[in-house]
Amino acid sequence: MSSNAQKIDGEINEGISPSIKEKAPLILAEIKKAKSILLHCHPSPDPDSVGSALAMKFALEQMGKKATVIKGDSEFPREFMHFPGAKDIVQKNFLEIDQSQFDLFLILDSAMIYMVSRRGDVKFLPTLKTIAIDHHESNGNFAELNLVVPSCPANCQLLFDIFKIWNITLTPEIAANLFIGMYTDTGAFKYRGVDKHTYEVVYELVKYIPDVSSLITDMENSSTPGFMAFEGAALSSIEIFFDGKFAFSSVPLSWMQEKNIRPTEVRTSEVSSFMLTVRDWDFVAAAVEIEPNVIKFSFRSKNIEKFDVAKLTSSLGGGGHRAAAGLILRTSLADAKKIVVEKAKELYKL
Predict the structure, then answer these.
(1) Structural domain of residue 91, as residue ranges?
(2) What's the CA gap between 130 and 4, in Å, rounded?
(3) What is the CATH number for 301?
(4) Which residue, 136, 178, 154, is CA-closest to 314?
(5) Which of 44, 83, 173, 252 is the most exposed place for a label (fewest CB within 10 A)?
(6) DSSP structure class, residue 285
(7) Domain termination residue (choose one: 220, 243, 275)
(8) What is the mean pLDDT of residues 7-31?
């Protein structure tokens, strides 16, 4: 190894969180004991969820372990099918599997137990060891062993650091999944939390990806006409509150059904991120009725000291980060909007 490579390698090690250095060996010890390991994608999966699960699967197989990724509650997005390993994801949610077939469940990028499944009560068999690896500030530490690092801007970055400690050999498949999870969860490396270490990790990953630009292009050019129509409806519905500080968009299920738009075509996070580009809006919410009286929200904030959206969503049963958070309310769209606006007024003293 060249002296320059040694220097870069040393800098990457310096950027790894102490909690990762402490708990990564403990997690590895449990993996070594396990024979069959379960991984999942959280409801309405994003690339960080999918990339984390698939990268971990390849790493576990490199160790000689049997690993299975299940799709979780949601229909697997067609635009993620280019992720290496996506075709091998088992089309089941957690409540449809036989837990006794697994002895370890690595729960990735999931802050709360309902991110394992929202379709019923999630209860783990005593024989199923649970380990959560996550980067959300709102994580509830619901697993037996929890590694939560909110300073990591993407769960895939956290996994890179873990793989470094485990001496996992980077492959094109692992690198592509980690990169696309990092790229999307950081807003193309522009959100808060991105730092020198993030770029050191990216520098290492792109060495193993034959065509990074194609990977990004495939991800960014995956919209459907249905999503374009949905985004237009969401943006045209925007309402402004609190003297222009808060913008709220909403799309009812009746409109979705009329336009024959599938749930997998709806990405509220992209709508909320676009809304936040308006200079004078401090925090925003994009809501959509995905089922009768089931309202899904995506929140974004550019002023996290004053408008911590994780604080707002957590108070209503959701979770996330200070700058980006999510929530599901089971009520009418009109009542959901009222609940969110009133809670924001109360919490932020508006």
Answers:
(1) 3-220
(2) 40
(3) 3.10.310.30
(4) 136
(5) 252
(6) E
(7) 220
(8) 84
